[in-house]
Design a protein that fits this description.
By secondary structure, the chain is α+β, with helices and mostly antiparallel strands. The chain has two domains: 162 residues, no CATH class; 116 residues, no CATH class. It is 36% helix and 19% strand. The protein has nine helices and 14 strands. The strands form five sheets. A five-stranded mixed beta sheet has the order 1-8-7-5-4. The chain is elongated. It binds zinc ion. Zinc ion (ZN) binds next to β12 and α6.
């Protein structure tokens, strides 16, 4: 067993290590294999438990991580729209629960892993457990420290300003990372336009922007795109028809510039995007049509000027 100071040092080291892994993976999901490879002082300490949601390494006096497994709908069950997680410890055994309750009592920072698909996780850290309910046998914590400042929505009623603030944090901390992981996975981690495969250079583009009412964070409203094609798409310099054909803005097609313009954009005109093999993950033709209408309207109204 380590001293308290060393325990906190291990936790800090885990967070640093996760920062590095997230950079390596372009802010993408992490596999169970990667999460099992963490070492401290030459000793391997897997960050997830094989059979349980609560990870209690023998070296630590309280819980190191909590995991929510793969579920069909990521926004149901334990997480609510307020960005707070209710974690049930009914199923665990006595020893696991003792360490979980101790993490709450000590205010120990830990990691929350949520599965985005079987065996792949997004980490949230540092998490501090805000509440322990020994009667219902669950703990509650916010996914972001900013939400903790607002207080638990179950015991307080938020003002409109607080509700909007909470909604914006939930969008950036919960919905967008899950959207990104799902879209990049659906497209096998490659740009749907040019097939570039470097995850550090890839984004999950919204077909209909998320500011729009229809701009949902669902994989059918997403396209995996490299930074160049994402920017071109968002600025209507490029579009995708409901038949999945790539169109480049007419003015841009006539421009003369270096190889990036020629190979990166002009040569994409008329090609077909690479579709996800999973039919359910393919882009919605209705959403593509809505966005393509914007592109066509802008191209017509600009008619050779304005870009
Ligand atoms: Zn691309």
């Amino acid at each position: 067993m380590f001293s308290r100071t060393e325990e906190l040092a291990i936790r800090e080291d885990v967070f640093r290590w996760l920062d590095e892994r997230m950079i390596d993976h372009g802010g993408y999901e992490l596999s169970r294999a990667v999460l099992s490879s963490y070492e401290y002082g030459g000793v391997r300490i897997p960050l997830l438990d094989r059979g349980k949601g609560i990870r209690n390494p023998i070296q630590l006096s309280s819980t190191l991580s909590i995991m929510t497994g793969w579920k069909k709908n990521p926004y149901q069950d334990s997480e609510d729209e307020s960005g707070w997680v209710t974690y049930d410890y009914r199923a665990g055994d006595g020893g696991d629960n003792t360490k979980l309750v101790r993490a709450w009592a000590n205010g120990d920072p830990l990691v929350y892993f949520r599965a985005v698909r079987e065996g792949f996780y997004l980490p949230y850290y540092p998490i501090v457990i805000a509440e322990n309910d020994p009667v219902r046998r669950h703990v509650r914590f916010p996914l972001d420290p900013g939400l903790g400042i607002l207080g638990d929505p179950l015991s307080l009623s938020y003002t409109d300003i607080q509700r909007r603030y909470a909604a914006s944090i939930v969008k950036t901390r919960l919905h967008q990372p899950v959207f990104r992981a799902r879209v990049l996975h659906a497209y096998d981690g490659a740009c749907t336009v040019c097939n570039l495969k470097h995850s550090e250079l890839l984004d999950a583009a919204h077909i209909v922007p998320d500011a729009d009412e229809r701009g949902i964070a669902d994989v059918t409203n997403g396209l995996a795109m490299c930074k160049l094609h994402h920017a071109a798409y968002d600025r209507s310099l490029m579009a995708v028809t409901p038949e999945y054909e790539i169109r480049i803005n007419a003015q841009l097609l006539d421009e003369v510039d270096g190889p990036m313009l020629r190979h990166g954009l002009q040569e994409m005109h008329g090609r077909t995007i690479r579709l996800p093999s999973n039919r359910n993950a393919r882009p919605s033709p209705d959403l593509l049509a809505a966005q393509f209408a914007n592109f066509a309207r802008r191209s017509a109204s600009v008619d050779g000027g304005g870009f």
